[in-house]
């Protein structure tokens, strides 16, 4: 589906918010995710991004994940990346970006992990 | 009308029916009278002979009886002389009246000098056979000049005392016959005169209609087929007159038809001349493009028209149109169309706007119900971009040289002049397609795709046209046109051409390897392109972000790539996506009317992807790997696309094509571990 990305926001316990992303993350859709997450950050919500439904990620999508991580970190708000699809994980691995993102195999693990 | 050669007036016939009839009547009457007269004369003569014989016999008997008593006297001559004299004088026609005794002495004769003399009978007498009953001693005789009867003069006791002779000349008979003949001739003359007169009157009456018929026929001969023959006649002439009237009406109709046919033929020739003078007589070649058209006129000239021309700004305009309306009317609209396109083609940048203008101007001059379907395209030979619009015309067919695929571009416009008042504007739009080297475009009129096979059940259709176009990849436009026409002839198999057939081919030539080129770099890029066009598989994408979604399925369709292990295909599509996204976003600024072409080339060396685009050139050569350790780089989150490309590919090369296109070559890395074990 071209440029189709959906984000579903689930408020969770202890100030965490789960944002489930499905579809394509490209130059059209990535900025929308970024602004959604920025709003959550401004409200001091910690965010878990469920990326299991992302079937394609373009460089702009990767860039927005990196920028998000840095902005959250700068604001002192947590952001975790969970259940990366092959499309996402292969690119993250290719660029060796794992060390800049808090990545968890599942959303459950992201929810229960201790703060880094 | 055909000119009739003037015949000299016939004043009189060489052999008139009147003279002929009179001659025949004359001959018949004369003949029959002569035959009847001859028979009659024969009969009369016989009757006269018989009568003369009877009379001679009777006279001879009477004379003999009278002589018998005279012989008893002493001087019979005294009695017999007055008797014979009396007989002779009362019947002067008698030649001889004489009585002779037993000793041959004349006893009775009109001439007294003969009495007592030895009787001398006329010479050459022969006994004559006769129907008269003769008594004993009686004899009938004749000579060439006489008839004579001899009767015996008998004594009372039966003894023959002498003979009585009575003769009459044959001329007596002839005189009688001749008199009768004279009468016959008189009667004959009278009858003949009457017959000739009657014939003359009758034939003249009978032939009176001939003059009327002749006058009528002469009038027809002079070309007057309107005036009818008036003839009240109950004979065959009356029938003839009505036949002539029917004939002249039919002649009139045939003549009218012939005049109409001649007029149509003249009009047809005129229309053909106009049409052929309007159509271009050569092809157009510029900057790697060849545009060539072909037109075959139907028996009855149709209204097909095509043209191509260089516009003031260096771009190429071309059109194909079909005027509804054949013959001279169609041709006039065609000339009008040609003139209008000539005057407005440099005024309007958009094909759609030109069509709207043409609709407005044609609408002012065309009869309601007539219309023109028209395709108009403007080709930029530098970029290969074609912008076109179609007013109810047949779909555009494009053959893609590298993917060997056929694309149809259908538009929704209504024909020019079909609906008045500018309605057409809302139905038209400009569309764009980019022609890559090796691509070929076909425009045409419905005489091609709607051409029926001999059974009249199936049309030639778009698919066959596409097949021919695809089969002719690499041929010159001229060859393509000829082959298309040949296939069409085969399809029609001798059937007549019912509509004009027009074809227009626009071909973009394949890039040639030009080793004489100045720069080594140009030679190199020309080689890539040549190889890609020869052996590569390709896809044409528009300058629209949604088009990028077609990359992944296309890659999956390539067997070699589909079989890569691990995340191979995923990463390759990311890398190719990034390269293409650069062109769409930066090179083309998301302009969907532009296109670019992507090849996968598996040659002798490492396989590679090649991208040919006409967008803004980008200087990607001085790329440096992003340093993600730098927080600012991560915060910015941009320029990562090139990192993806460089990490997936062995090499990334850029170059320029011969017409200032951009070439991007992404060399496949056969050594990469797609399982990404190198990345922790």
From TrEMBL, chain A:
<dbReference type="Pfam" id="PF01740">
    <property type="entry name" value="STAS"/>
</dbReference>
<dbReference type="InterPro" id="IPR002645">
    <property type="entry name" value="STAS_dom"/>
</dbReference>
<feature type="domain" description="STAS">
    <location>
        <begin position="6"/>
        <end position="114"/>
    </location>
</feature>
<comment type="similarity">
    <text>Belongs to the anti-sigma-factor antagonist family.</text>
</comment>
<dbReference type="InterPro" id="IPR036513">
    <property type="entry name" value="STAS_dom_sf"/>
</dbReference>
<dbReference type="GO" id="GO:0043856">
    <property type="term" value="F:anti-sigma factor antagonist activity"/>
</dbReference>
<protein>
    <recommendedName>
        <fullName>Anti-sigma factor antagonist</fullName>
    </recommendedName>
</protein>
<dbReference type="InterPro" id="IPR003658">
    <property type="entry name" value="Anti-sigma_ant"/>
</dbReference>
Automatic annotation (TrEMBL), chain B:
<dbReference type="InterPro" id="IPR001932">
    <property type="entry name" value="PPM-type_phosphatase-like_dom"/>
</dbReference>
<dbReference type="Pfam" id="PF17203">
    <property type="entry name" value="sCache_3_2"/>
</dbReference>
<feature type="domain" description="HAMP">
    <location>
        <begin position="204"/>
        <end position="256"/>
    </location>
</feature>
<dbReference type="InterPro" id="IPR029151">
    <property type="entry name" value="Sensor-like_sf"/>
</dbReference>
<feature type="transmembrane region" description="Helical">
    <location>
        <begin position="20"/>
        <end position="39"/>
    </location>
</feature>
<dbReference type="GO" id="GO:0016301">
    <property type="term" value="F:kinase activity"/>
</dbReference>
<dbReference type="InterPro" id="IPR036890">
    <property type="entry name" value="HATPase_C_sf"/>
</dbReference>
<keyword id="KW-0597">Phosphoprotein</keyword>
<dbReference type="InterPro" id="IPR036457">
    <property type="entry name" value="PPM-type-like_dom_sf"/>
</dbReference>
<feature type="coiled-coil region">
    <location>
        <begin position="244"/>
        <end position="271"/>
    </location>
</feature>
<dbReference type="InterPro" id="IPR003594">
    <property type="entry name" value="HATPase_dom"/>
</dbReference>
<dbReference type="InterPro" id="IPR003660">
    <property type="entry name" value="HAMP_dom"/>
</dbReference>
<dbReference type="InterPro" id="IPR033463">
    <property type="entry name" value="sCache_3"/>
</dbReference>
<protein>
    <submittedName>
        <fullName>SpoIIE family protein phosphatase</fullName>
    </submittedName>
</protein>
<dbReference type="Pfam" id="PF07228">
    <property type="entry name" value="SpoIIE"/>
</dbReference>
<dbReference type="InterPro" id="IPR052016">
    <property type="entry name" value="Bact_Sigma-Reg"/>
</dbReference>
<keyword id="KW-1003">Cell membrane</keyword>
<keyword id="KW-0472">Membrane</keyword>
<feature type="transmembrane region" description="Helical">
    <location>
        <begin position="184"/>
        <end position="207"/>
    </location>
</feature>
<keyword id="KW-1133">Transmembrane helix</keyword>
<keyword id="KW-0812">Transmembrane</keyword>
<keyword id="KW-0418">Kinase</keyword>
């Amino acid at each position: 589906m071209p440029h189709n990305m959906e984000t579903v926001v689930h408020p969770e316990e202890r100030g965490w918010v789960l944002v489930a992303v499905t579809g394509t993350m490209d130059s059209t859709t990535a900025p929308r995710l970024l602004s959604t997450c920025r709003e959550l950050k401004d409200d001091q919500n910690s965010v878990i991004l469920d990326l299991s439904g992302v079937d394609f990620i373009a460089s702009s999508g990767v860039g927005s994940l990196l920028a998000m991580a840095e902005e959250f970190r700068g604001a002192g708000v947590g952001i975790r990346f969970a259940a990366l699809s092959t499309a996402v994980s292969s690119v993250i691995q290719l660029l060796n970006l794992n060390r800049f993102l808090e990545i968890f195999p599942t959303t459950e693990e992201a929810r229960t992990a201790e703060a880094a | 009308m055909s000119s009739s050669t003037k015949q000299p007036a016939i004043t009189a016939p060489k052999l008139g029916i009147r003279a002929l009839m009179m001659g025949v009547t004359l001959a018949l009457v004369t003949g029959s009278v002569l035959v009847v007269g001859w028979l009659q004369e024969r009969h009369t003569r016989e009757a006269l002979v018989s009568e003369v014989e009877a009379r001679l016999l009777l006279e001879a008997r009477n004379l003999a009886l009278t002589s018998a008593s005279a012989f008893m006297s002493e001087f019979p001559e005294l009695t017999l002389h007055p008797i014979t004299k009396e007989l002779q004088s009362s019947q002067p026609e008698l030649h001889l009246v004489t009585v002779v005794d037993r000793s041959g002495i004349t006893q009775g004769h009109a001439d007294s000098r003969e009495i007592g003399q030895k009787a001398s009978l006329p010479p050459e007498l022969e006994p004559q056979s006769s129907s008269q009953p003769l008594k004993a001693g009686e004899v009938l005789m004749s000579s060439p000049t006489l008839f004579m009867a001899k009767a015996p003069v008998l004594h009372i006791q039966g003894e023959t005392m002498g003979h009585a002779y009575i003769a009459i000349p044959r001329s007596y008979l002839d005189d009688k016959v001749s008199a009768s003949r004279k009468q016959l001739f008189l009667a004959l003359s009278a009858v003949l005169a009457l017959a000739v007169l009657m014939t003359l009157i009758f034939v003249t009456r009978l032939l009176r209609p001939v003059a009327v018929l002749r006058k009528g026929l002469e009038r027809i001969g002079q070309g007057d087929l309107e005036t009818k023959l008036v003839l009240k006649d109950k004979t065959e002439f009356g029938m003839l007159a009505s036949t002539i009237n029917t004939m002249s009406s039919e002649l009139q109709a045939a003549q009218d038809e012939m005049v109409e046919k001649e007029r149509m033929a003249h009009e047809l020739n005129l229309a053909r001349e106009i049409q052929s003078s309007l159509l271009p007589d050569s092809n157009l070649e510029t900057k790697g493009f060849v545009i060539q058209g072909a037109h075959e006129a139907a028996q009855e000239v149709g209204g097909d028209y095509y043209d191509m021309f260089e516009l003031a700004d260096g771009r190429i305009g071309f059109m194909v149109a079909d005027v509804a309306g054949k013959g001279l009317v169609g041709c006039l609209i065609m000339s009008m169309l040609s003139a209008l396109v000539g005057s407005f083609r440099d005024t309007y940048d958009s094909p759609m706007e030109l069509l709207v203008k043409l609709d407005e101007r044609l609408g002012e001059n065309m009869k309601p119900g007539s219309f023109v379907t028209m395709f108009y395209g403007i080709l930029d030979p530098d970029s290969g971009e074609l912008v076109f619009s179609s007013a109810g015309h047949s779909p555009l067919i494009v053959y893609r040289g590298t993917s060997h695929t056929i694309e149809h571009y259908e538009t929704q416009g209504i024909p020019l002049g079909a609906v008045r008042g500018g309605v057409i504007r809302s139905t038209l739009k400009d569309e764009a397609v980019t022609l890559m080297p090796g691509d070929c475009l076909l425009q045409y009129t419905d005489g091609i795709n709607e051409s029926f096979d001999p059974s009249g059940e199936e049309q030639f259709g778009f698919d066959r046209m596409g097949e021919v176009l695809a089969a002719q990849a690499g041929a010159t436009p001229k060859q393509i046109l000829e082959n298309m026409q040949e296939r069409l002839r085969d399809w029609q198999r001798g059937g007549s051409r019912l509509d004009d057939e027009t074809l227009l081919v626009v071909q973009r030539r394949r890039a040639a390897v030009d080793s004489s080129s100045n720069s080594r770099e140009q030679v190199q890029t020309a080689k890539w392109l040549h190889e890609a066009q020869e052996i590569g598989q390709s896809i044409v994408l528009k300058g629209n972000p949604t088009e990028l979604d077609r990359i992944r399925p296309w890659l999956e369709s390539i067997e070699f790539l589909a079989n890569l292990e691990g995340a191979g295909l995923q990463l390759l599509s990311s890398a190719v996506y990034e390269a293409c996204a650069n062109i769409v976003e930066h090179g083309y600024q998301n302009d969907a009317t532009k296109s670019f072409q992507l090849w996968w080339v598996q040659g002798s060396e490492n396989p590679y992807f090649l991208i040919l685009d006409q967008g803004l050139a980008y200087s990607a050569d001085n790329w440096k790997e992003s340093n993600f350790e730098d927080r600012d780089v991560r915060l910015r989150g941009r320029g990562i696309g090139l990192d993806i490309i460089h990490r997936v590919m062995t090499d990334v090369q850029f170059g320029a094509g011969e017409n200032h296109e951009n070439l991007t070559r992404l060399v496949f890395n056969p050594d990469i571990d797609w399982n990404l074990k190198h990345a922790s």
